[in-house]
Amino acid sequence: MAMIRDLLVQGVQMLLVLALAPLLTGIVRKVKARLTRRRGASVVQPYRDLRRLLAKEVALAPNASWLFRVAPYLIFALTWVAAALVPTFATGLIFSWSGDLIAITALLGTARFLLALAGMDIGTSFGGIGASREVMIASLAEPAMLMIAISLALVAGSTQLSAIAEFMLRFGSLRVTLGMALVAFVIVAVAENGRIPVDNPATHLELTMVHEAMVLEYSGRHLAMIELGASLKLLLYVSAIACLFIPWGLAVDVDGIEGYAVGMAAYLGKLLVGAMALGVFETSIAKMRVFRVPNFLGAALMLGLLGVLLRFVSRGM
Amino acid sequence: MQGFNFDVAHMLAGGLVLVSFMMLYQDRLYSVINTLALHALVLSLSVAWQAYIRDAPHLYITAAIALGFKAIIIPIALRRMVFRLGIHREIETVVSIGLTMLAGLALVGLSMEVMLPVTTHADPATREDIALALSVVLLGLLMMVTRRNAVSQVAGFMSLENGINLAATGAQGMPLVVEISIAFSILIAFIVIGIFLFRIRERFDTVDLQALDAFRGERR
Amino acid sequence: MIIALLLCVAGLFVLAIAAVPLAGTAVGRRVVYGGALGVTALAAVLALVAIGAVPAALTLPLGLAWQGAHFRLDALAAFFLLVVNLGAAAASLYALGYGRHEEAPHRVLPFYPSFLAAMNLVVLAADAYSFLVAWELMSLASWALVVSQHRVAENLRAGTIYIVMASFGTLALLLAFGLLAGIGGDYAFATMRAAHLSHGLAALVLALVLLGAGSKAGLVPLHVWLPLAHPAAPSHVSALMSGVMTKVAIYAFIRIVFDLLGAPSWWSAVVVLALGGITAMMGVLYALMQRDLKRLLAYSTVENVGIIFIGLGLALAFQANGFAAGAAVALTAALFHVFNHSQFKSLLFFGAGAVLTATGTRDLERLGGLIHRMPRTAVLMLLGSGAIAALPPLNGFVSEWLTFQAILMRPDLPQWGLKIAVPAAGALLALSAALAAACFVRAYGIAFLGRPRSEAAASAHEVDGFSLSAMAGLAVSCVLGGTLPGVMIDLLSPVARMLTGARLAPQMAVPWLSIVPNADTHNSYNGLLLCLFIIGVASASAYAIHRLASRAVRRSAAWDCGFPDPRPTSQYTADSFAQPIRRVFGAVVFRTHERVTVPPPGDTAPARIEKFVPDPIWDTLYAPVADALDVVTRVLNHLQFLTIRRYLSLVFAALILLLATVALWQ
Predict the structure, then answer these.
(1) What are the residues facing C72 on neighbouring strands?
(2) What residues of B are in contact with residue A316 (Cβ under 8 Å)?
(3) Comparing C-alpha atoms, which of A279, A85, A270, A231 is closest to residue A164?
(4) N or C terminus: which one in chain B shows less Cβ crowding within 10 Å?
């Protein structure tokens, strides 16, 4: 009986992240539009876009390989499985121990590997631009993320997200290492999701693209899968920041439905705040030149490494 | 409650180290000055917090001096100076930002390695604060060493002085008289530096130290 | 068991001798490679059984008259025999197909089985003399294989550098064994294990072992022979040298430092961690600058050896502090990576050999679009690239995850050097893993995807069944290693117990087949579940969308922003792909720079962009040594042209000097 309830909760979480991801993207776009004195599209427009794309036929280049056609589904599956491992409204879900923060980072890395290969598949120069810039950004963002994971593990005693969230809820306090980890996490989240200042998700100029350049040749249902994967990745990062650094409201070891309801309400509130904060952040700064991005990400890597160093050197920090 | 007090003190000290890194990262002069103002603001918050948890009211005055002079008056004066010198559009650095940050990280590790074993019989919370204060001093020195522009070097010097202040207030607090005299001497040194900068600029049309080196006349 | 393994070695020697007359014939290739396949497969099975068994020893009346040749089969030797023989079996299976294109079989066939036999003997040897004889035989046999295609000039240069470095390594190992044997002069490992060395001598032995075994494994800065020699050999031999011979060198390091030297000191851990981290970073950065596919793979081997040494350094650090459980996890992580690397590196080299056979070139700038021409090789190479880039759910990720878990096991180490070295090594490991993924996106994407960049790539054809089945077997083992890692961890527990005194909890008993290396923190990873979820979700979503939404496909021209260019030269090249990373990392590490010359308007000369990637290690370390050697030999050359009187006076002076020395000594 407990097993069935646990499976149900895990299933609800998986469907919840899938359902909320386009809404999050819609809210961010709406906030950005409002801040630039436009009305903006409705917050449910991404759902309409996905429905439209799913129904369209796919236009494939003549030399597109099987990898090009299979990659969108694999990227979507990898991102969804990673997002399902992040606690949203409750911790300790039944499959949350199959992957910790390091495994989540690596799953997203696999998705990125496949996306970069898909970008190179058709053999156009724009795909190459996107793929080469993406791997340059990843070569700094992924180590920064791993350093953050290690510093969090040194504070909380575990790399499992559920365990870290529960630790923060019970014994969380202000620590220098956590402050540095938060700043570094936000920088990595901005870089990995292709947001301003690293990449502009709404650009039409190919030479400024990173993520969009890799998916330039995709259309129809393939493009829908990739867009959904990108929205899921954004939701994953916002949920991770929420459960690690603002854990209040998470349902831990609850029995009744009230605990889950409180957790759900808290989670929705955090998502809303996160989406608005991201919109404000993107509107207030300009996109960086491509070769300033390594400095930006290098700062995140340094902060992560500094946090780890402080924990190794002195347990009080 | 004790733990919370010390955690906030650590956060502010760590924040000062973070702002020092931010200063190393900037390459425009206005951003350097703004970061300097933030540096002094965090210092004054840290001193005020020390005053609160230690119940030492004279530290409030130190915090007010730090806020008034170093966070407001001196940055405004520097901005005026930079604008009148006409160098507010310059971008400058000597060593690449990545290597500078890496060197900064090594300096933080070094200061930890030096200070923590030395102060083994002190209060554990103060030990880490002193180690972080030494890091701020070393990062200020790094800023002075890796920059060409004289104004950035002044900023590095000011952040170095902030680090010394942090160490002093973290330990057991200095008497107010000493603080006031130090603040005045800094102010005077600052005015003198400013006068010299203007004279150098008039003479040589630049305050770029590397260009100024060529005028030394001793090298062939 | 040990007798059976020694008989397998003898069988390989018999094959080597038989290959001499048979080399020219058609059946000779099949006999040699088929026989090698059978013998090494048998040896692998025997080694697998022997890992958990009681150690066995044997002394044969060969070699030195008063010592005999000692052989010993304990858990460590059995594990490395498994690695060696699995790699050898795969290479022999591959060579059954690949060897058809061998132009000079009499230069390859006799040396191949002797190479395999020598590697087995090195692992089995239990005294310094037989160890060094087998080590030298391994170097010589592989050198003969490196220069087998002697008409290519760069192969001869590669062979020369290789034999010089190998001799230098053997000299270092000889001195190390001499110090370990001490005044008594007994070369048996059992005596060395029982003796205790002073701290200074132990430090000297460690330095010599790092020089000797490290140069064979590929530690920076002794790695320079590796990217020259590994590409020069035929592909199955390259796979063996990269995937297996480097592991034999690592075995030598583990045997001497963990087993024979006794309790380590903490600063030796700092040295090993530093060397491992630097090797990993430099290896992968070099790999990103290469356009020769095999040289790229060779530098990637250097990187993975660095990762293994990081794990070994962690084990030393924990052992120096008496924390046996942490040492067991770190050692398991390093040995797991040893196994994983031998599997996926052999797979990648076999794929590179397949590409070489199909297109005739190894140059990435001439390949492209091979996924259409060689579909099966492409799938297998994709799995290999994913494994080496440490992507879940494949095996490369598991060993990297275990290394990170080892770093987290005891953060409050007392020594300051370790407090700084362990996080630094972790950061370098993370950086090199991310850069390795970039490197293999580049290698796979340029070689297999896109449009063909040359006529050779456009007319490639799939390779034969033997090559494909060897690659498929290795790919299956990569997938199994990633989804069922508990099996390998349990297999490694006797080795960990033997070397560190502790072992991990039995992993096959953990529910759902997860792995939990540290029972206190319950950090766990379940590759099987993740793999099943990913495949399940991907297929279910594809099926649902095809059924409910649309499955229409229309073939039309590529979009390319409305300006499709039919020329394949308009797509990204390998150099342009690596340019951002070259600019970010290469400018700092290698001092790379580019020079652009644009002719003035009206001039019909082409614009040029030249990139300069200097090799800092060669320029600072080896080139001065070579120059000094030149100077010294030029000066000494004068001795060739002296008159008779001068020679006599030299002899006279030497005699006086010796007599004076004898007089003063009294």
Answers:
(1) C57
(2) 10, 124-125, 128
(3) A85
(4) C
CA distance C508 to C510: 6
Alpha-carbon distance of B145 to B32, in angstroms, equals 15
CA distance C271 to chain B (A): 18
Share of residues in chain C with pLDDT > 90 (%): 61
Candidates B99, B113, B117; nearest CB to C588:
B99
- State the DSSP code for C554: E
Residues forming beta bridges with residue C73, ordered by sequence position: C56
- Interface touch B96/C588, C-beta < 8 Å: yes
Contact A174 B11 (CB under 8 A): yes
Instruction: Write down the ipTM of this complex.
Output: 0.94
Instruction: Using CB atoms, list chains with 3+ pairs below 8 Å to chain B.
Output: A, C
Q: How confident is the model at residue B185 (pLDDT cuts 50, 70, 90)?
A: low
**Rounded Cα distance, C620 and C599, in Å:** 35
Q: Which residues of A216-247 are buried (b: 16+ CB within 10 A; e: fewer)?
A: bbbbbbbbbbbbbbbbbbbbbbbbbbbbbbbb
Among A75, A162, A61, A67, smallest CA distance to A112 is for A75
Query: Positive or negative, the Cα torsion across B149, B150, B155, B159?
Result: positive
Domain ranges of chain B: 2-216
Q: Chain B residue with minimal CA distance to C424?
A: B106
- Tell me if C416 and B99 make a contact (CB, 8 A cut-off): no
* Residue C349: other Cβ atoms inside 10 A: 31
Between chains, do A310 and B112 touch, taking CB under 8 Å as contact?
yes
Kindly tell me if the per-residue pLDDT of C194 is higher than 60. Answer: yes
Question: CB of C580 within 8 Å of any CB in chain B?
Answer: no
Residue with tokens 């394949």: C568
Question: Could you tell me which residues come within 8 angstroms of residue C638 by beta carbon, excluding any fewer than 6 positions away?
Answer: none
Distances (CA, A) of C337 to A143, C50, C250, C384: 19, 20, 11, 14
CB A179 to CB B3 under 8 A? no
Cα nearest neighbour of B95 on chain C: C588
Record the tokens describing residue A210, joined without a space.
Answer: 């990173």
Name the nearest CA neighbour of A308 among A180, A163, A197.
Answer: A180
Query: Per-residue confidence at A51, pLDDT binned at 50, 70, 90?
Result: very high
Cβ count within 10 A of residue B204 = 13
CB contact under 8 A, A313 and B109: yes
Q: What is the pLDDT of residue C429?
A: 96
By C-alpha distance, the chain B residue nearest A295 is: B98
pLDDT at B2: 66
Domain residues for the domain of A143 are 2-313
Contact A116 C441 (CB under 8 A): yes
Write out the two tokens for A296: 């930006």
pLDDT above 90 for C275: yes
Cα(C405)–Cα(C489) distance, rounded to whole angstroms?
Answer: 14
Distance from CA of C225 to the nearest CA of B (A): 30
Question: Contact, C87 vs C240, CB < 8 A?
Answer: yes
Question: Which residue from B minimizes the CA distance to A303?
Answer: B18
Query: Contact, B151 vs B109, CB < 8 A?
Result: no
Q: Which tokens belong to C280? A: 């990993």
Angle at B21 between CA B15 and CA B26, to 5 degrees: 125
Which chain B residues contact residue A295 at CB under 8 A? 25, 97-98
Contact criterion met (CB below 8 Å) for B105 and A310 = no
Q: Is the pLDDT of residue B31 over 70?
A: yes
pLDDT mean over C96-106: 84
Inter-chain contact C450–A97, Cβ cutoff 8 Å?
no
Q: What is the pTM of this model?
A: 0.91
**How many domains does chain A fold into?**
1
A79 touches C506 (CB < 8 A)? no
Band (A257; pLDDT cuts 50, 70, 90): confident
The answer, for C407 touching chain A at a CB cutoff of 8 Å, is: yes
